[in-house]
Amino acid sequence: MVANMRPSALAEWAFNLIVLVFATSTIAQPFVIPSGSMESTLMTGDHVIVDKLAYAPSDGVSSHLLPYEPMKRGDIVVFRYPVDERQNYIKRAMGFPGDHIRLQNGIVWRNGIRLDEKYVQHVFGFAPDQYRDNFPQGTPRSGELDWRAEQMLESCVQAGELIVPPGKYFVMGDNRDNSLDSRYWGFVPEENIVGKPVLVWWSYEASEKELTDFVNFGHVLDVATHFFTKTRWDRTMRFVRTTG
After folding, report:
1. What CA–CA distance (Å, rounded) separates 78 from 115?
2. In this structure, are residues 157 and 148 in contact, taking their beta carbons and an 8 Å threshold?
3. The whole model's pTM is what?
4. Residues labelled as active-site residues
5. Which of 18, 45, 54, 15 minimizes the C-alpha distance to 195?
6. Beta bridge partner(s), residue 92
7. Is 71 in contact with 85 (CB distance < 8 Å)?
8. Residue 215: alpha-carbon gap to chain centroid
9. What is the pLDDT of residues 37-57, one digit of tens each?
């Protein structure tokens, strides 16, 4: 089977094997999905390996040894959360520098083209929200936005569209109706991009509180007791399809 793989796919397989065996914080990083903002692409409780070299500069000898690639529109990316850079977030890169972005009834339009986003999930039961669904023209609720988002709306909106400035990215979750993303806290600076998820090495059914409260003894006990029954075996050791 390996003999029939494309060179780029073979390189990715080789890289993932290297990560699993020799992973360090320099080239790879474990990351757990703590919320449902990327469902159903990535589920709460997915434990992923993040390739931190994927978008590194591709010059020099190292470019011939590892599968570097340019970041693409629609890629899933891990980044330092601009509101608190001690935290890593994961979203889909929807807008690149110079792009014109708007939403109309929950549908994304980029540079005048309506996007066909088969990965997007719209959960029935959420009430219509003019700001969320018709960004940036809708009116946000009082106190809903971080000051960075308020500044974004003041300085980067023209003719009802958001224009992404140089060195910035506009990101959104795939669970489009339930995602705290760039609509609410603004752009992701280029230097905040950490990498991309490449592999779900383990997936476990757990709540957001259990996954974010690291001193939760109950979660440790739950894993010890229900490891086999709550592990999502169909998702474990699955490669992440990171491009839209």
Report:
1. 22
2. no
3. 0.82
4. 37, 91
5. 54
6. 76, 172
7. no
8. 25
9. 999 899 999 999 998 888 866
